[in-house]
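Risk register update: the risk that structure generation would not scale has been downgraded. Supporting records follow, first protein first.
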Amino acid sequence: MATKDLIEALSSPENAYHYAREVIKGRWVEGEHVIAQDAQWSYNYSRDINDRFVKGEPVIAQSPHWAYYYARNVIKGRFILGEPYIHDDTFFSKKYFQLFKTEFTEQEKVLWLLRQ
């Protein structure tokens, strides 16, 4: 691999994601610190490698949009770290609750609904 190509791949989360997907064709540990800087590319990376991307979870959590899709499509369950952010978004809060309400305790259901 040419140094120039590697430098370009590490220059942005989007470039690192595409390098992992199109060149490495899987998990690229060396580029994960770059991908983890952006919610969308962290979500896409986790979806494409079919696994949680723990390094990217803090940034994914801060985006109600990507946190919801991460919970639904990657974790396939509640994403506790993202719940405070999801809850603050009217649209994704309702979708998230409907999708995972069976996983909430009765007390959590009441608290979630009271905050809406």
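Supporting record for the second protein:
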Amino acid sequence: MFIWIAIVSQIIKQADSLPSYIGYASGFAAGNFVGIYIEDRLALVTLIVRLILQKNAKAVIASLHSAGFGVTKVEGQGTAGPVQIIYTIIKRRDLPTVREIIHQNAPHTFLTIEEVRSAEAGVFPEFKKNLVALFGRKSK
């Protein structure tokens, strides 16, 4: 970490004109853009999707299970009565599929999506299925 501070301080000391500042800012922004783009394309981030439903929980759970996703259901109490809280842990590349399943079975569902630092020993879709989603063709 200290070495990066030293490098940046040297760059700033050498930048003594407007083009130097613009070049530094452009390089910094381009690096961030490329890093975000690569991470987004790889979609390695794990997400937790939390749904709160008053009805149609069985249909959502069955559809998620049939698509290969693990689901945990918890009974709860909302302001308008009993609710079911459904959790599923997914990779970001699977989010469009999961959203489509949710919207087909329960269109007005309250849902939240958060990043997860780590998850293990759960039910996740097959690796081959993820390769097809990532590269667009089946591996042999």
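The radius of gyration is 22 Å. On this basis the risk owner (M.S.) recommends closing the item.
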